[in-house]
Amino acid sequence: MPQAVRIALYQASTGIDPSANAARLVSAVVQAREGGADMLFTPEMSGLLDRNRKRAAQSIAGESDDLVLAAVRKAAAEQGIWVMLGSLAVKKADGRWANRSFVIAPDGAITARYDKMHMFDVDLDTGESWRESNAYAAGDDVVTAQTPLGRLGLAICYDLRFPALFGALGDRGCDAIALPAAFTVPTGRDHWEVLLRARAIEASAFVIAAAQGGRHEDGRETYGHSMVIDPWGKVLLDMGEGGDRVGFADIDLARIGEVRAQVPSLANRRKIPSSPEA
Q: Of 3.30.950.30, 1.10.10.60, 1.10.10.10, 3.60.110.10, which CATH number belongs to 4-266?
């Protein structure tokens, strides 16, 4: 495996029209390849961002009928590039929705899928209220995939707040972890960077977080600041506010071994016994 890998991140401002979003994603794939990237990372809900669920339901389909997924797979094959498609809203066989990530190989094949485990059910001081579990079914499986970055662990947005998932990814020897997101502005401003850096340090792995940013067609505003964090917790890329642009980072995979030798926390970690019931 090469020790230097160039990656691209697409910071999006996804809207309510999947065909328009697909066109922007295809453009990002082309830009990533032209910029010399081996792999492109896109945000959570790259194909559709619409909090009007009645309207959104008209555009959410199963994998085989999803026009965004088809367009990105075709573009990946044409450009010969890996794509970590942050997530799409897809209809499951039982009719429920999943918030699902896809790892797409340079031939367009899907090599891994991950359904978001932790549902964003919160009430913010700003008056914003989100109940993701009203529409989406939570995933159950920890997922990794072999990529140009080595073993890539998959997580999505709100998963960031649950260290146990990242501990499981660390146990699986992940070299990098993808964390596509659509973070709100208040939580992003105070928590985004510090949590990303903590997860990178805990896992002694790169964390790659492509994010939604800016004002969206459905009226919401997302924080942006797509980031790449190295295993020491150093910020290698911060794309700032706003959306619809591609950024690049050069990943030195040798850094993983250096950090793990210096601070062998994964090797030293012990299983914590469960507390006895009262």
A: 3.60.110.10
CB 165 within 8 A of CB 117: yes
Catalytic residues: 44, 116, 157
| Vertex 72: Cα angle to 68 and 77 (nearest 5) | 150
The closest alpha carbon to 152, from 256, 74, 225, 30, belongs to 256
pLDDT in tens, 15-68: 999 999 999 999 999 999 999 999 999 999 999 999 898 999 999 999 999 999
Estimate to the nearest angstrom the gap between the alpha carbon of 244 and the chain centroid.
Answer: 16
pLDDT tens track for 153-182: 999 999 999 999 998 998 899 999 999 999
Residue-wise DSSP of 180-226: -B--BHHHIIIIIHHHHHHHHHHHTSEEEE-BBEEE-TTS-EEE---
pTM, whole model, 2 decimals?
Answer: 0.92
Q: 97-117 in b/e burial notation, b at 16+ Cβ within 10 A? A: bbbbbbbbbbebeeebbbbbb
Sign of the Cα torsion 171, 172, 176, 181 reads negative
Packing angle, helices 193-203 and 163-171, rounded to 10: 30
